[in-house]
Design a protein that fits this description.
Helices cover 41% and strands 24% of the residues. By secondary structure, the protein is an alpha/beta fold. Helix 1 crosses helix 14 (305-321) and helix 4 (78-92) runs parallel beside helix 5. The longest helix is centred in the C-terminal third of the chain and has 17 residues, at 305-321. The radius of gyration is 19 Å and the shape is globular.
């Protein structure tokens, strides 16, 4: 199998970060995307080869993947783009990585797991900030308390902002509500149905609300823990507005509102500035407990989320290129262990008491 890989969605905010870091590391992905002009301009700037194709027909995707051993998929919203790329990888025997955080995409990959094993390939969504640091934290806590039945995790991002791509994905999900895992099953709940204060490693208590983060899916496959909740830090005033969302879901789900929101997103910055990425940090907190009330807690500090995504995605891509790619559906921690995140410079993990 050829050791070439394709970076699809290379000219998006996060894709560009990945491409630039790949060049620094001496990797040579073939850059790809839908736009001829945007793909060509980036490829010429970085002196890399490129291909242009959409995901609308299987034939176009198959041709675009010809000769590749792996795809690193960075073109969201993945609810629209993941399936055609996964199906193409299954048809052509190509390993699949992406940077999604969408529960539905993880569940799709899990459902396709048996086919991936038969094809001899790995399907691993979520090789960025969604979900590498939290996935590793979940498995680390399960190792500390093997009989854990409940998992809570929270994250806070300091000094950064959301990219247009991430914000667009959020807009696509307006009005869809939240999710938790109860007794092994994913359950729909309102966004922010629970809230609590969390002491992160920065030494501050932050107000956090529950959200439908990818670990509601992935942590179950990594740890077997049947009850999972994920939280993010928000201002209490924001939380009060979020609590009104169930009454507005019918409106938020309309194409009129979603398109208005997406147009406003496109008028804003592409994502955090280089200075914000350099100065920013991300903080992860996790807690597990068992039926007897025993607990284990841990905290994690990582580089800023988009910077971390570029680093973890290429770190995992290198493992795959080196032949370390367990077949079937995989999560980052399940495939590479709870210490995977500590292989990224600037990451610190500590046990916690609260």
């Amino acid at each position: 199998m050829a050791k070439k890989f394709l970076l699809y969605g290379a000219y998006g905010y996060t894709g560009r970060l990945i491409a630039e870091l790949a060049r620094e590391k001496g990797l040579e992905p073939i850059l790809a995307g839908r736009s001829v002009e945007k793909t060509r301009q980036l490829a010429e700037k970085l002196e890399m080869d490129y291909r242009v194709f959409g995901l609308d027909t299987p034939e176009a995707v198959d041709e675009g993947l010809n000769g590749m051993s792996m795809v690193l998929h960075a073109a969201g919203p993945f609810m629209h783009t993941a399936r055609p790329m996964m199906e193409a990888c299954l048809r052509n025997g190509i390993h699949y990585l992406d940077i999604t955080g969408e529960i539905a995409v993880f569940e799709l990959a899990a459902a396709l797991g048996p086919r991936a094993r038969e094809a001899g390939i790995m399907l691993m969504p979520g090789v960025g900030f969604d979900v590498v640091p939290t996935d590793c934290t979940a498995l680390y806590l399960k190792e500390k308390l093997p009989g854990a039945t409940h998992l809570q995790m929270a994250f806070s991002s300091g000094g950064s902002r959301t990219s247009q791509g991430t914000a667009t994905t959020m807009a696509e999900n307006l009005g869809e509500g939240g999710a938790v895992r109860e007794n092994g099953k994913i359950k729909k709940v309102p966004v922010g149905h629970k809230a609590m204060e969390v002491l992160f490693a920065e030494g501050k208590n932050r107000f956090c609300m529950s959200i439908p983060w990818g670990d509601v899916s992935t942590a179950f496959y990594s740890t077997g823990i049947p009850n999972i909740e994920v939280y993010t830090s928000v201002h209490p005033k924001t939380y009060r507005y979020v609590k009104l969302q169930p009454y507005l879901n019918w409106l938020l789900r309309t194409s009129f509102i979603r398109n208005r929101v997406k147009k406003r997103i496109q008028k804003g910055p592409a994502g955090p500035s280089e200075e914000q990425r350099k100065r920013g940090k991300s903080y992860i907190w996790g807690k597990v407990w068992n039926e007897k009330g025993d607990t284990a807690l841990a905290r994690l500090i990582t580089p800023e989320g988009y910077d971390l995504t570029a680093r973890t995605s290429l770190h995992i891509a290198q493992k795959v290129l080196d032949g370390n790619a367990p077949v079937g559906f995989q999560t980052p921690a399940k495939a590479y262990g709870s210490g995977l995140i500590l292989e990224i410079p600037g990451t610190i993990r500590e046990d916690a008491q609260k």
